[in-house]
């Protein structure tokens, strides 16, 4: 799968406490470069240790500071689900309601001692 560097929200981002993705995507920057459906993909890169659960949320906002963010989709993953490296956790089409900016937001429960995510948008999902 080919990835556009401008469509990556988290690139092997270590998540040990509640945090937003390291990158924000400005959906107006590309114009209409993607004519079809975009998918949000979340995968573990490094196995998580110590997590009770992590809630992944894909958020959107009209402003880059996400002062009034809306959640487009969310999913809760248990420590057991996060215990494997290089595991695709979800690949879902972007729902209606996308505003100008998009980010991932990770809400952590537990004392995480290891673990990282990659999260990105793509028009082609690897269905392994």
Could you explain how this protein is built, in words?
The structure is a single chain. The mean pLDDT is 91. By secondary structure, the chain is an all-beta fold. Helices cover 0% and strands 56% of the residues. Strands 1, 2, 3, 4, 5, 6 and 7 form a 7-stranded antiparallel β-sheet that branches.
Q: Which characteristics define this entry?
A:
7-stranded antiparallel beta sheet; Jelly Rolls; mainly beta; globular; 56% strand; 128 residues
Listing every helix as H and every strand as E from the N terminus to the C terminus, the arrangement reads EEEEEEE
CATH architecture annotation name: Sandwich
Q: Span between N and C termini? A: 11 Å
Number of strands: 7
Tell me the number of structural domains.
1
If you compute it from the alpha carbons, what radius of gyration comes out, rounded to the nearest whole angstrom? 14 Å
Q: Kindly name the structural category.
A: mainly beta
Helical segment count:
0
Shape, principal axes of CA atoms: globular
Largest sheet properties: 7 strands, antiparallel
- Helix percentage: under 10%
Overall average pLDDT: 91
Q: What is the subunit arrangement here?
A: single chain
CATH topology: Jelly Rolls
Q: Give the uncertain stretches in residue-range form.
A: none
How much of the sequence lies in strands comes to over 45%
Name of the top-level CATH class: Mainly Beta
Can you summarize this structure?
It is built from no helices and 7 strands.
């Amino acid at each position: 799968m080919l990835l556009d560097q401008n469509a990556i929200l988290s690139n092997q981002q270590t998540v040990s406490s509640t945090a937003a993705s390291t990158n924000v995507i400005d959906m107006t920057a590309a114009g209409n470069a993607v004519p079809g459906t975009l998918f949000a993909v979340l995968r573990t890169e490094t196995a998580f240790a110590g997590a009770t659960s992590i809630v992944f949320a894909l958020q959107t906002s009209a402003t880059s500071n996400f002062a009034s963010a809306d959640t487009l989709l969310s999913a809760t993953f248990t420590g057991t689900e996060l215990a494997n490296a290089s595991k695709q956790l979800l690949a879902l089409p972007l729902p209606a309601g996308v505003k100008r900016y998009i980010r991932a937001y990770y809400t952590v429960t537990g004392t995480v001692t290891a673990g990282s995510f990659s999260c990105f948008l793509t028009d082609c999902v690897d269905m392994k």
